[in-house]
Amino acid sequence: MNFLTRFLTIRTLKKHAIPYTLWRDVTSQIPLVQIRTNKEKARLRLLSTLFIHKKSFTGAHDLTITLEMAITIASQACIEILYLGLNAFRGWIEIIIYPAAFVVQRDTIDENGIMHKQVNTLSGESWGKGPVILSWEDVIKDSYTLHLYP
Is 80 exceeded by the pLDDT of residue 1? Predict the structure, then answer.
């Protein structure tokens, strides 16, 4: 990391740090965060702070995005990159959050060249260069339920 990047990262962490009590209150209810070691939780808080600062959170259908919502999303997203760093999420900026599942209509062409209209109800989707689109209702449902796999 070059000097300027390091300086800007440290400045962001100092000026925009997620308040510890708020971090604890939000993440204490998220099993995927709670199973981490204290060292991992501390790193996760730093990564989440940077994630929230670098990504744009947009509410769809008049949904107002709160810091608690951003922390819920960022903390779980950053679990995926806990040891990779925030550069693993480089290349996209925006997270669009719908209040609930959303309907997407697309035209597709089958192998015979016939066009079909597809209507799907989705809880989320992402594109290689963004945005990431989520249903807040499904984020809540999935965040606070620990899925254990055999």
Answer: no
